[in-house]
Amino acid sequence: MTGVLHGLAKFCIRRRFVVLGVWLVLTIALVVVSHRLGDNTNDNLSLPGTDSQRAADTLAMSFPDQANGTSPIVLHAASGKLTDSKYATAVDQAAADVAKAPNVASVVNPLTPQGAAALSKDQSTGYLSVTLAVSPGELSKDEAQTIIDAANPAKAAGLQVETGGQLGQKVSKPSTESSELIGIIAAMVILTLTFGTVVSMLLPILNAILALLATLAIIRMLGHLITVPTVAPTLATMIGLGVGIDYALFIVTRHFRGLKDGLDPEESIARAAATSGGAVFFAGGTVTIALISLAVAGIPLVTTMGLMAGVSVVVAVVAALTLLPAMLAITGVHINSLRVRSPSTDAQINAGLWARWAKGVAKRPLLAGLAALAILVPLMIPLLSLNLGQQDVAALSTSTTARRAYDLISDSFGPGVNGPLIVAVSLGSAAKGNPATSDPRLQTLQKDISSTHGVVAITPTQIDKTGTTAYFNAIASTGPAEKATADLVEELRSSVIPRAEQGTDMQADIGGSTAGYVDLASRISEKLPLQILVVIALSFVLLILAFRTMVIPVQAAVMNLLSIGAAYGVLTAIFQYGWLSGLIGLSGPVPIVSYVPLFMFAILFGLSMDYEVFLVSQIEEHVHAGQDNRSSVISGLVTSARVITAAALIMVFVFGSFVLNGDPTIKQFGVGLAVAVILDATVVRCLLVPALMLLMGKVNWWMPAWLDRLLPHVSIEGAEFFQAREHLAGAAAEPAPEANVAPKL
């Protein structure tokens, strides 16, 4: 692999302006085309084999519009009643206009007998119940806004108009530009201090920005071919920006080392791309594999999110191995321009902070290891009470229409109205009675559900023309995202609603978005152990190939589980317990969205391999140079700690900046990823791992002889390639021995 990367880098160096031009033209073309196509994200939750999916499938056949759910457009009079003449006409006009809007199947007016349940007792608040003709996920933001704007007659009459449900959430997505900008500014400061020059700082930033623009354009285009969740572009931005800057940091750092060793600038660039570039290729492959392995959960939403995040990593790797060498070649010796500090000498490095730290760990490795565990283990304790929940509209900013609609409905009708449970019924034989809804089976089912603790109301039953399919809504006393609502769904399914397999002449399923997220949490809880096992197994195999030892991969797996477990614990404490939630813009506890821990594990296990590979490869290099275990660990830690810390700080600021995002789910990703990275790069990589390697000594490099013979030889940074290359060059430079020729007479 080293030879391929070296050759690729040489080509990019020779054709530097062509490579840069291709990247610029391709990125601009992708951005232009994607913007012409527009955004088409889709939060449609498909969960094959679950109750909520069966309910959706049942409704799709007989009540296709109802399968798309309803969204409320809430109308509130600050004074007076909606039935007052000055408001009533406007409400009727708004209902009529919304019904005519594109993609609307029907609208129920709260001022009609059919919509009486949508009018509050004091008649000051009501809502238009909007049924869409398409899945809410298929609507663009502009299309959703067109439907909402159709209710403007009510706004013109002086009513407060807010939109809830999936229609409101579609237009309530917070912007992330400020988060991205803060992350980039922080990275610029860290890179300037790390490299010491402004010019060298700009290269990783430009590299990451171009890669990110291309990534987002690709994801936007893929949204027209497959179902891409709304959160996927933001998540890809977090990961793509973080790894894009970090990968460039590793390569530029190696380039500076090559220049320091006296290499020609172009050869230094090529070697940096072939050595640190090999580590980047390996690390990027690990992250991508971990993200793609999310498919084992069998959840379309999670699988697609993993693929989109994987796209961001792949593009970042390609940019680091092609675009960055071209920009380094164009910069040439000017990489040292605009210097802000002098480079550290070897003497300063060997007497600096990290040298003292490494020697301190080596002096008392057992104490260092216990200190690391004393930090990590307590942080893991809240993980024991982790509950997986769903996205909570009640945690959105009050600046969003979805949150304001949620609050108005909760105050006037009760929180459960924000997420009704849809009871879909399939009858074994046609309903009997006049009307058909008076069938004893349906009457008994309604009675059983309405008498269940936690259900405060049910809506009238709707039945199809054949009399074999019916549905009604059950309203919980608690909000959609509360654990009590999830418990109610489980109770209804387990002991209240009938099942065909129980010998009854009917089958009932609980559906709707609330029940769908309950099923999502349940499915993820089942699949998380398998996901963990798959990722660990893949990483184990990759590390064995990289370092040819059985011990290092086991250490890495345990260390990563410790750091990720601690991050889960912090996530639980901040969001589920509500500790320090005010510092991140929340008013109290919010549920941890079920797919966040699953996705975090895949991302973090992959990213932590970056630091593991960088640290252990530096230690291994000194072992191969003939140093003993203690000296190798100290030297490797001194060489790698500064770069690992800089890379981790960049990740922490990039991830942490997304805490400013108004979406609680994005906040959870930001906090969880930032905490995990800072723990992994400091407590684990700079304390626990070196302490354990010091204690284990030569055992670190143990490998069964039979397995060593079977495994192919893989070199991450390709030291053997350059040794062989230099040996051949030296042999060619030696003068040929003179032949024994008889002297001329």
What attributes does this structure have?
745 residues, alpha+beta, Multidrug efflux transporter AcrB transmembrane fold, Alpha-Beta Plaits, 4 domains, five-stranded antiparallel beta sheet, four-stranded antiparallel beta sheet, 25 helices, 11 strands, 62% helix, elongated
The fourth-level CATH homologous superfamily of the largest domain is: Multidrug efflux transporter AcrB transmembrane domain
- Strand fraction: 5-15%
Q: Structural class, from helix and strand content?
A: alpha+beta
**β-strand number:** 11
Which helices and strands, and how do they pair?
Blueprint: H1 2-14, H2 16-37, H3 51-62, E1 70-76, H4 85-100, E2 104-108, E3 125-132, H5 141-149, H6 152-156, E4 160-163, H7 165-170, H8 177-195, H9 198-222, H10 232-260, H11 265-292, H12 300-331, H13 346-350, H14 353-363, H15 365-380, E5 388-389, H16 401-413, E6 421-427, H17 440-450, E7 455-458, E8 462-463, E9 469-476, H18 483-496, E10 506-511, H19 513-547, H20 551-576, E11 592-593, H21 595-624, H22 629-657, H23 664-696, H24 705-710, H25 719-733
Describe this structure as you would to a colleague.
This protein has 745 residues and is α+β, with helices and mostly antiparallel strands. It has four domains: 1-37 and 194-343, Multidrug efflux transporter AcrB transmembrane domain (Multidrug efflux transporter AcrB transmembrane fold, Up-down Bundle); 69-170, Alpha-Beta Plaits, CATH 3.30.70; 420-511, Multidrug efflux transporter AcrB pore domain (Alpha-Beta Plaits, 2-Layer Sandwich); 527-717, Multidrug efflux transporter AcrB transmembrane domain (Multidrug efflux transporter AcrB transmembrane fold), CATH 1.20.1640. Helices cover 62% and strands 7% of the residues. The protein has 25 helices and eleven strands. It has helices at residues 2-14, 16-37, 51-62, 85-100, 141-149, 152-156, 165-170, 177-195, 198-222, 232-260, 265-292, 300-331, 346-350, 353-363, 365-380, 401-413, 440-450, 483-496, 513-547, 551-576, 595-624, 629-657, 664-696, 705-710, 719-733, and strands at residues 70-76, 104-108, 125-132, 160-163, 388-389, 421-427, 455-458, 462-463, 469-476, 506-511, 592-593. Strands 6, 7, 8, 9 and 10 form a five-stranded antiparallel beta sheet that branches. Strands 2-3-1-4 form a four-stranded antiparallel beta sheet, sandwiched between helices. A hairpin with a 5-residue loop joins strand 8 and strand 9 (469-476). Helix 2 (16-37) packs parallel to helix 9. The longest helix is centred in the C-terminal third of the chain and has 35 residues, at 513-547. The radius of gyration is 31 Å and the shape is elongated. Residues 739-745 have low confidence and may be disordered.
